[in-house]
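quick one: 9MR bound model?
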Amino acid sequence: MVRTRWRTVAPFLVVLMSAGALPAVGAAPPEQEELLINGTFDAGSKPWWTNAGMTPDVSTGELCVDVPDVADPWGAIAGQNDLAFRPATEYTLTFTARADREVTIRPVVQPTDGSGGGAYLTRSTTVGTAATTTTYTFVTPDQELPVNNTLQFQLGGAGAYTACLDDISLTGPPYQHVPDTGPAVKVNQAGYLPRGPKAATVVTSATEPQKWSLQSAAGTVLGQGTTTPRGTDPSSGEPVHGLDFSSYTKPARDVRLVVGDASSHPFDIDADIYQDLRSDAMRFFYTNRSGTAIDGAVAGPEYARPAGHVGVAPNQGDRAVPCQEPAPWMDGWTCDYTLDVTGGWYDAGDHGKYVVNGGIATHQLLSAYERTLHAAVVDDGALTDSTLNVPERDNGVPDILDEARWNLEFMLKMQVPEGKPLAGMVHHKVHDVEWTGLPLLPSADPKARALHRPSTAATLNLAAVAATGARLWRDLDPSFADELLDASTTAYAAAGAHPALFAPRADGESGGGPYADSDVEDEFYWAAAELYLTTGSAPYQRDVTDSPLHQAEVFSPDGFYWGSVAALARLDLATVPSRLPDRDRVRRSVVAGADLLVTLQEREAFGQTYTPSDGRYAWGSNSSMLNNQVVIATAFDLTGHKKYARSVLEGLDYLLGRNVLGMSYITGYGTVYAHNQHSRWYAQSLDPALPTPPRGTVAGGPNSSIQDPVSGAWLEGCLPQWCYVDDIRAWAVNEITINWNSSLAWVASFAADLGDGSACRKSGPHKQR
Ligand code: 9MR
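yep, here:
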């Protein structure tokens, strides 16, 4: 039966709440909301779950199950999880039930993990053959409640029978997510470089400038000044002041900024702030490797795990993966072969491997390395061999290239073999045929895997990344360089022959994301650029200069990402040595792109390098910011101008805690940091035996679209900076991915190369080749 899900939650409620404007108790009756999803079974059976091998049948518009003869009521359950309640609050449960004989069932509402002092509601209900409707009210305990609760219909203990449930409704005031945003003085909690910029943001409704002081751990005043009122910040809705303490340049430990009663989290002033972040952000890729056991001696003991997807049960493995089942959008495409696509990196919190996203991530690691060959301000030796925790350490090859090679070799395996239809094209992705739940180690994934139809985008990604690799391995491993260049030119030609084979949204329903992209002009530009830079050959040069994107504005405030890669072409054309005739113009376009970003950043009260054109934060906004920092950092490499170095460091301040939530989005860095990111195997919040994501993992971050059920329910109406919660279920705001960590790795490496930040004080000579 159809019932509209109704909501009366005030828009921007979350913002009001966090500003301390809690509605006065008794002022108005609390809003009522339907808390269940699909209680009428009009949309199949999800997200209801059953146990005891019961298969839900919704063909009558009810949820019917054949209950087996089990001893305990909880031996056979139909339930729904992810329910959040307010404490000491009344809720109402209504449901209709029938059975094929009279039985007693038990509706129960309780914490999903059994914690919190027992059930909030447990009743025994007699159910007959005619459908009857029952209503119960219950009041939740007056204590802090777990955020994940469950409604269960415990059906066991009554012999075998058939039960049908319908029109299940659980109403009451919606859970209010009130994040603990910590001190009103928002700082980079990891710290500042002694000679770098030092800015903070104070959330305060004061209209006059306020006195601030920088204090040592013992309370000695090290510096002082006054704040600058900046009005209401649109990205957070908060009234804010700016605060600049750049004039303090001495190294210090555990200092705080104090404004009135508010004292910031402690932080350091130290030239080493970004040294570990560079290697931690890069090490993320090793623990995300597929097809190999993760060695605890390399990764840290808690990250040791068996190899995933190598064909050892229960994995079905990536050794001989067939093509996906035919679907109407495939236009008759199928394949008669299987491919060994072992290896590579898992994309994110899932076990999928997607060429377009692997492509940009691999490229950013290669680019972080290539930058050290051409830029003026680099710490020579920081990215050579024996600098990262990877098993290939001490093999004479820079470790970051070893890591990138792990995924590059996987990408090569995704290319359609010679003699087969679409030879030279690249399969878009490989992933499970159905979604799996959390937690789940890669080695425990029991689902079958499938190769998805080749796409022009994936093919051009391989062409671009393999071409980049070909120049970087030319002296280190000439035969690998040859193999890469061969794969790249083959792919580029195949993409030219099939320029419009697009991965559609429809191919992201089951078991993996779509990575849909139907505009590949940018991928053509990128592949042509990398092939030109590697070979210097005239036809590729012509493809670069003939591309409409070559003259276009490719740097937008939204930031480049896996689906929009023209900026990658432009950045490399500007920085990698070549004889490109209009190279000076290309370089100027990067600087102009950076200038716009810096101008926009100056208007942002939290220093973020991100002012999205529609005012809404995108999925993975933290990476959008970091990718904008790549553009700004490249302008620094091209000009040596201090303003760009300052801008990048200020952008990192936002990610490390100078934001309205007072949250460092990088695991292990700062006082309060994200550590419950959405992942099937760094899933400690679901299984204490599992680790959190490793140090140096960046969360996707605030996402105005809050598509997952947890952020969707808790953060409704959020202004951009509030659209985040550090909950493992909140996949739209709190996932981890290789392409987000690759942006972090690139920027962290740039920041580490700045040493004590002297380049932020005095512009250096322009030395880039
Ligand atoms: O990062 C991707 C984002 O840009 C897209 O908007 C979103 C929806 O298509 O998908 C994101 O990618 C996810 C992928 O589809 C599956 N693995 C996890 C990725 C990060 O959430």
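The chain has a mean pLDDT of 94.
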